[in-house]
Amino acid sequence: MLRLQKHVHPLHRSTSPIHLSLRRALLSIAAAASSSPSLFAAEDYLVSTCGLTREEAAKAAECFSHRKSPINADAVLAFLTGPALGLSKADVALLVTKDPRILNSSVDNNLRVRLDGFRSHGFSTAQIRSFVRVAPYAFRTFNIDEKLGFWMSFFGSPDKFLRIIRRNNHLVFSDLDKVVKANIRLLQVRGFSVQDIDSMCVTNPRLLTCKPDVTRAVLMRADELGVPRNSLMFRQAVNTAAGLSPKTMASKLKVIRKTLGCSDAEVATIVQMNPQVLMTSSDKLQRVYEFLTKVVGVDSKYIQGRPTILMYSLERRLAPRNYVIKALQEKGLIRKDLSFYTMVTVGEKTFCSRYIHPYKDVLPGLASSYASACKGKIPT
After folding, report:
1. DSSP string, 148-205
2. Pick from 304, 313, 321, 306: which is nearest to 281 by CA?
3. How confident is the model at residue 68 (pLDDT cuts 50, 70, 90)?
4. Mean per-residue pLDDT, 276-302
5. Distance CA 314, CA 330 (A)
6. DSSP per position, 10-23
7. Is 22's pLDDT higher than 70?
8. Residue 95 pLDDT more than 90?
9. What whole-number distance in Å separates Cα of residue 158 and Cα of residue 156?
């Protein structure tokens, strides 16, 4: 402004029509410059309109602070919260925080096209909203035709895909050819069918998204557990090896050997019977072992032959069912030689139908006592 005035003042002394005309033009430019609105206050907009915190807005504003008005951002927000998608304020805040560049998007050329792409693969509006919540940073850029097409053919349904990316959203970005398909081939070489791999990925989706060298090392550790590849337990062996580092696995083997007082060969047999016992914490192993040997009255050999029993919850399963068994045995209602393991492993509905409901008249308080025991309140 000052620089402009330096050019204007000297012209004031001239009466030439040309100079007067030039002077009026310069003054008009100066007035327009002084009255024009400042650049779009992106940070304030993000806080007041999008629901971001001041700290989040400061980071996000860099992505579209070049905008001179909120017109495009307003159109984007109207579309996201409108009937086409129906995002909540919290959804919008999450989406903009993770991907502020979405406010620069074209509604017609990008966002609307993306919604149509999701729907073409069987996604409902509610399922698209779920994807936004699970992978907000990917909604604008996710390769729908290539990747969603592959995952839908692999998992079979949007619900299953969403359930798995909640556990591992790397599925959204992983390279299909170099990572995902390479891992699938490694698993198939070990004898797993596509259906097997599908099932395994529900509990351990990282098997498909980690580097193939990592997957190869996991499969080698699973082989070292001694579980035959053609057995149903080999799938559990792979999931266990994937969930434990080599150091942790070695430590768990030592804990089992020490807690149960068994040999290396006996530990190997235990693991082959149920590899997932290695996923049990050391503290839980110790507490369950002491309960089984001191309260239930079984010995180490009994446990070694039924290692799955070590994986059940002491508070919600073992102790409550043991209470019911003892109560029924004291009344002579069931034989004393009934297998504790059988009573523990049956489902909740079956257990109640066999050992609670038939005795409601003889022991009217048994059902309520069992319910209390399952909540950690064992009757005395």
Report:
1. IHHHHHHH-SHHHHHHHHHH-GGGGTS-IIIIIHHHHHHHHHTT--HHHHHHHHHH-T
2. 313
3. confident
4. 94
5. 22
6. HHHT---HHHHHHH
7. no
8. yes
9. 7
Q: What is the mean pLDDT of residues 16-44?
A: 51
Q: Which residue has the tokens 């257990």?
A: 351
Q: Which residue has the higher pLDDT, 17 or 92?
A: 92
Q: Cite the residue boundaries of each domain of the chain with CATH code 1.25.70.10.
A: 37-173
Task: Determine phi and psi for 41, rounding to 5 degrees.
Answer: -80, 80
Burial class (CB in 10 A: 0-12, 13-18, 19+), 135: buried
Name the 3-class secondary structure at 238.
helix
Where residue 65 falls among pLDDT bands split at 50, 70, 90? low
Q: Could you say which DSSP state residue 337 is in?
A: T
pLDDT digits (tens, 9 = 90+) for 146-181: 999 999 999 889 999 999 899 888 889 899 999 999
User: How far, in Å, are 40, 70, 79, 139 from residue 92 at the CA level?
Assistant: 20, 16, 11, 12
List Cβ neighbours of 88 (8 Å cut-off, separation of 6 or more): 81
Six-digit token string for 90: 């919290």
Contacting residues for 355 by C-beta, under 8 A, at least 6 apart: 324, 325, 328, 334, 343
| Pair 324, 370: CB distance under 8 Å | yes
pLDDT tens by residue, 339-353: 899 999 999 999 999
The arrangement of secondary structure in 37-173, i.e. its CATH architecture, is: Alpha Horseshoe (1.25)
pLDDT score of 113: 94
Torsion, CA 160, CA 163, CA 168, CA 169, rounded to 10: 90
Mean pLDDT of the chain: 86
Burial label for 11, CB within 10 Å (0-12, 13-18, 19+), is: middle
Q: How far apart are CA 370 and CA 380, in angstroms?
A: 12
Instruction: Please give the Cα distance from 124 to 158 (Å, whole number).
Output: 9
Q: What is the DSSP letter of 296?
A: I
